[in-house]
Amino acid sequence: MFDTSVTAALVGDTENVSVMLTLGDDALGILPMPDCGLQSNGTGNWSLTVTPHARGSEVTVRLDGDLQPCVSETDFFSEYPCIVETLLVSASRNSSCLAHLLIQVEIYPNTSFAQNVSENATIIPNQVYQPLGPCPCDLFIGACDVQCCCDQDCTPHLKDLFREHCFTGVFGGNVNPPFDHLCSTPVTEEVSDLFPFLCVQSSLENTPFLGYFFHGLISPRTEHTFRVPRYSSSTSWLDLGYWQDRPILTSNNEFFTIPQVSLVGQCVQKAPVAFLRNFDSNCATNLTTYQERENISEVRLINSLGEDWIVPEVVYEESTALNKFIYDTETILHPGPTFKSVHLEEHYTFRWKENKITELNVRIIWAKIHADQQGTLTQRFKVTFLTFNATEGLKRSGNPGYHPGKPVRALNVASAENVSTINLWRPVGSGLCTEMETSPVLFGEDAVSGCLWEVAIDENCTHLRAEVMNRLKSLVQATHVAKKGNSDYGNIQDGWLKIIWRDTHFPQEGPYFMDIKGICPDVPATMTIHFLISNSGNLEGIPQDVILGAEVSFSSVTWQFHCGITCEDKPNLFPLSVSVQFIRIPPQLTQPLTSFQISLANRDCTNNEVCWSELIFPLSKYYQGEYYYSCLAKSLMLVFIFSLIIFIRNPWIREHMIWGLSVF
Predict the structure, then answer these.
(1) Which of 146, 295, 296, 310 is most buried per CB count within 10 Å?
(2) Tens digits of residue pLDDT in 88-104
(3) Which regions span the lipid bilayer (predicted)?
(4) Do residues 136 and 170 lie in contact, with contact meaning Cβ atoms separated by under 8 Å?
């Protein structure tokens, strides 16, 4: 707790629950003891507020005492806190303790404690008439910025500390400086003789910084939809069939959509499915807002104009393993048969031939839950494209080299079914290792995954090391990896490389390594898989990448059981992780610049000191300070004035006199 208030949630059935607040003795270093007694609204300078909600209660602890020790106008950069307290919030029912929350309070001096916070909205001035920022060095709201003398949050005592070192110029608040062409500016020796005739009569409010704005154009808002525009002509790009990355269309002239994970990690509910683009995504949905998607059996896909529609073949399978898909559940039962069905997994298999979709097989795994059940549902959506005569058998990962994003092929010569894969954990449910699913390691994609292992306080260290090691090794049940993407599983000599294992040496028996209750040294916690890859050449202009070696190593840590206020007989969660890294040898060097890039760099005004294109910048298309015709008129006026000055200067008159004498 670093502020004057903190809020926590008490989850569960909070009916008839009393909440107490207890202070600790920081001087003696004694933690507060839980007081599971009557309801308490505060202790000393601290107040406690409990607000009931549907799924629990909101507990707010607030400092109501004197904040004068934290109000400092000179020492607001102190490294030492002004208030240090230890608080304990206890929840009980019928004098029986249910939950504890330990709060460590450290509040540091801050000048904002002495300020009156205003709730008025900030008024942004019109930039056409006055500069947008009257104090550019004021970077923090409610706090004094050092060396910023125009900051209204700085008190006179604070300004005395840096008054002689204030920021100058526009950044320091001088947004209306007198410019050189102002007639009131003192004349210097470098000023031209024509300065009195060409100077500007203006007030300081007409600052040069007023021109930094754009004349905005109002345009109607465009609503984006996944509906394909209808063409007036009968010709369509579908006449030639689909090709890779083209969106699949339905009979309603709309994109066929399936929930997918975007690049930023969010789940897009209606994302178009691209032809020949496989994906396997997981989306988390709140059960209270869950809505069933449209019936896939009623969707019709099209290949091209005039052809028959593709009718999906849907198979439903009921699942009872809800713990892998739903977590943080809470059910409030009501009388009556109020149940609903949810989709846990949806598998779409497209079969295609000659750029046409021939079949769509859909496999939906669903479950029945109570209508009032709450929690988070993790749904899986998988799309696979297969050729018309393809089987679900062995697939290549390239021919001959690996394709980026394809699974790394592995072989286990010690198993009857020698085909194997190298996997990563795929999080589902609560994240426990016993509930995790796996996904294959993809070529060229570095990845990190992990899970949580439950460990009790009286866990045997030898047994713990063995269990964790077996759990990590279960991801790599292979002895060899394929050098190429099309290595033959039936021929060990066809480019199969043996995996190098760097096992962790467990401690031997001795006084130092004796098992201590709650502490186990040298427990393997991280497994690292390194792949050495290289480019073996090009085939028809396509680079062919191969694997040169694979190594598996382990990193160990000292596990220690973490107790709260009391060491309860509940297991701790021990995190396990596995990382995959592809190392390219030799490292790829930076490509040399082409002649076009060199020529473009010479004209780059951002990186060069000389920029010829800015010689007439006001007349170029890049200048947007004012309209083009206004700039052109002003430029022509300057050209006229410059020509007039040259014409009436003394050399012309002197030349005219010489010409007149020569004539006579």
Answers:
(1) 310
(2) 888 888 878 888 888 88
(3) 627-648
(4) yes
